[in-house]
Design a protein that fits this description.
The protein contains four helices and two strands, in the order αββααα. The chain is mostly helical. The chain has one domain. The longest helix is centred in the last third of the chain and has 30 residues. This is Copper transport protein.
Amino acid sequence: MDHDMPGMGGMSPPSPPQDHMMMGMGLTHMTFFWSKNAEILFSGWPGTRTGMYVLALIIVFVISLFVEWLSNSNYFKDNMSNYNGLVKTFVHGLKIALAYLLMLAVMSFNVGVFIVVVAGHTFGYFLFGRRNNSENNACQA
């Protein structure tokens, strides 16, 4: 057995390069936390200012509303022409991209972000999804 390998025989693994420390790369949260000092989607955004945090929450809320509108809109579900099929495909891709963007925002583990994403989807369903479900139930009766 070769005892000269790093990490073997009681030797500690090599430490990370020091330039990561100098670039300001801190630890990310791996548990839910409540703070306006969060990073959502982009490095340094929204920063440490309360107004920017509130703006970030509003943007995330609006995106989740928009995803629900795209999911429940009859505008894109009617008329099965080839052109409409391309538009529907583009809209589906946009909906999936925005949904994954919201998932990444929630992965910031900030409780405020989690609450506004759930509230946005819930309110979006109240505005757009309920109507579609009641129309479908009326057609089946």
